[in-house]
Amino acid sequence: MVKKLASLFSGGKDSVYATYMAKNEGYDIACLVSIFSENLESYMFHTPSVEKTKKQAEVMGVPLLIQGTKGEKEIELEDLKIAIQKAKDEYGIEGVISGAIQSVYQASRVQKICDELDLEVFNPLWQKDESEYLDELLKEKFKVIIVGVFAYPFDSSWLLREIDKKFISEIRDLNKKYEIHVAGEGGEFETFVVGCPLYSRELKVVDSKISIEGEYSYRLEIELV
User: Fold this and answer.
1) Domain 141-224 = CATH 1.10.8.420
2) Whole-angstrom Cα distance, residue 189 to residue 194?
3) What is the dihedral of CA 211, 76, 52, 187, to 10 degrees?
4) Which CATH number fits domain 4-122: 3.90.650.10, 3.40.50.620, 3.40.50.720, 3.90.1150.10?
5) Candidate from 18-22, 31-35, 39-43, 77-81 with smallest mean pLDDT
6) What is the chain's mean pLDDT, rounded?
7) If pLDDT is split at 50, 70 and 90, which confidence band does 41 have?
8) pLDDT digit string (tens) for 62-82?
9) Reported pTM
10) Angle between helices 13-24 and 130-139 (to 10 degrees)
């Protein structure tokens, strides 16, 4: 069994929950790896409020490796490879944790990099039922907020909303009406985890700034304590 893993960590629900699942299965979370992309439309990497992974790492008590990238398609994968190699060199990792659910694009590229570096990939959310997954987040005491929306019919009122029973009910309705992925797998919304069993305490949002990027497209940068 692979013991020491690095988590590919964006701060959103999928990467945090995948890390939680890995820890529950007995893996050692040796470090977190976050990619800070200059390209807000990155194909690979979550970008809203990603720099706040520093706060999450603090309350998790886990080292964080940060790698910058210009976010150019495919070229950004070289930056990811550099970061994973650094995790291998500095922390002796034997594999990485990925939070991919349905994205073959993301999963296949992470797998290719890990094959090249002789590392395993632990992908506990792969092909997980999205609707059941949201219920599971609540059951496991995850407090998740929305930090970006990027599809019709979303507007800025969805930002900072918590994924709770009301949210889940509404997102299921949007799935039926507009085929919105209930877990945002189509990029329709982005999330940030402010509280979960991995944290020593809950993070509090003390300020936020909305960026309007177009019709039905809003991004939120948050300040935390």
Assistant:
1) no
2) 16
3) 50
4) 3.40.50.620
5) 39-43
6) 95
7) confident
8) 999 999 998 888 889 999 999
9) 0.95
10) 70
Q: What is the pLDDT of residue 72?
A: 87
How far is the C-alpha of 98 from the C-alpha of 5, rounded, in Å?
10
Q: How far is CA 185 from CA 7, 130, 131, 175, 188, in A?
A: 19, 9, 11, 12, 7
The DSSP secondary structure of the chain, one letter per residue, reads ---EEEEE--SSHHHHHHHHHHHHTT-EEEEEEEEEES-TT-SS---TTGGGHHHHHHHHT--EEEEEE---TTTHHHHHHHHHHHHHHHH--SEEE---SS-HHHHHHHHHHHHHTT-EEE-TTTT--HHHHHHHHHHTT-EEEEEEEESTT--GGGTT-B-SHHHHHHHHHHHHHH---TT-TTSSEEEEEEE-TTSSS---EEEEEEEEEETTEEEEEEEE-
pLDDT tier, 17 (very low <50, low <70, confident <90, very high otherwise): very high
Non-local CB neighbours of 36 within 8 Å, separated by 6+ positions: 50, 51, 66, 67, 68, 69
**Spans of all domains in the chain:** 4-122, 141-224
